[in-house]
Amino acid sequence: MRALRQIAIIFPFFGLVACGDSSGPSVSTVTKIDAPTTLTIPAPAKKRIGFVMKTLTNPFFIEMEKGARRAEKELGIELLVKTAAQETSIEQQIQIVEDLITAKVDAIVIAPGDSQRLVPVLKKAEDVGIKLVNIDNRLDATVIKQAGIQAIPFVSVDNEKAAYASAKFIVDHAAQGSEAAILEGIRSADNARQRMEGAKRAFTEGKAVKLVASESANWKIDEGYSVTKQLFAMHPDIKLLFAANDMMALGALKFLQETKRSQVKVAAYDALDEAVVEVKAGRLAVTVDQQAAEQGFQGVMLATRLLKGDSVPALMLIDTRLITAATGN
């Protein structure tokens, strides 16, 4: 009996050893948990804003783009800058807007070359939900209303007031009986009309001055030269000349220098670097700094606010200042 009890004790022992044999099946009581998969949330797509200007042949619009690019960087949006070949290339601007509609941009900020002809294509953009901001040259309010477009926020300067100040600067130093002339921009552009009216007001208020001519040179340097030549052929005694932008003024100055008419006082508008050089040299009496970069910056800012559903001002006017030999740049 004692021997049997010993055997009974030994057998369970061997059973325990057998269960621990590495050649047998392995059973784990702990369930393996895979490492949690990191959930990657895609970054929200950047808002895409089309920025449409008249041209880059005018340094004014190069400065405007710089301001818009600054807004792009600060706001984290994607800016699609598009320009026509020339300020008179209205059909090309219309096609640019068509292309931006096809590209399904979220907003369009536009400096239109014409105040009326761009309205129909902008209506198409609004109809598909694209937000609109108008800068520099104002779209015609009557045409916008007739097209059924909601009011479009506008960023610019008081063109009439600034042109008046520029022209008045040369009127204040004019001799009795001085004849004056105006080089206008594109006549279908609202800012050209306002600048012409501002200069006309300054010339007609000046009792010593007689306004004898006002002709368009379409914002261009070469036409500024040729139209000035024509004006002096008809009115050789002109002593005061207002150019509605610096490009036309530079063309006029070229003609005046070639014909040795250093006594003619020229007032201009835009404060391009080349014009400021002429002011410092005493060949250009005055020009207007209308802060092109700030207009571009604020235009993109307003478009971004519209995309967020914010209310924005209908009109935002940027400050201007006269650049003369006394003020510097």
Walk me through what this model shows.
It is built from eleven helices and twelve strands. The chain is of the alpha/beta class. The protein folds into two domains: 48-157 and 292-318, Response regulator (Rossmann fold); 159-289, Rossmann fold, CATH 3.40.50. It has a six-stranded parallel sheet with strand order 2-1-3-4-5-11, sandwiched between helices. α2 runs parallel beside α11 and α6 runs parallel beside α7. Mean pLDDT is 90; it is low at 1-33.
CA distance, first residue to last residue:
122 Å
Shape: elongated
CATH class of the largest domain: Alpha Beta
DSSP summary: helix tally: 11
In total, how many beta strands? 12
What sequence of helices (H) and strands (E) makes up the elements? HEHEHEHEHEHEHEHEHEHEHEE
* Helical content class: 40-55%
Main sheet record: 6 strands, parallel
The tally of domains stands at 2
Please tell me the CATH architecture of the largest domain by its name.
3-Layer(aba) Sandwich
- Taking pLDDT < 50 over at least 5 consecutive residues as the criterion, the unreliable ranges are 1-33
Structural class: alpha/beta
Looking at CATH, the homologous superfamily of the largest domain is Response regulator
- Based on CA atoms alone, the radius of gyration comes out at 35 Å
Strand content: 15-25%
CATH topology of the largest domain: Rossmann fold
The main sheet orders its strands as 2-1-3-4-5-11
* Mean pLDDT over all positions: 90
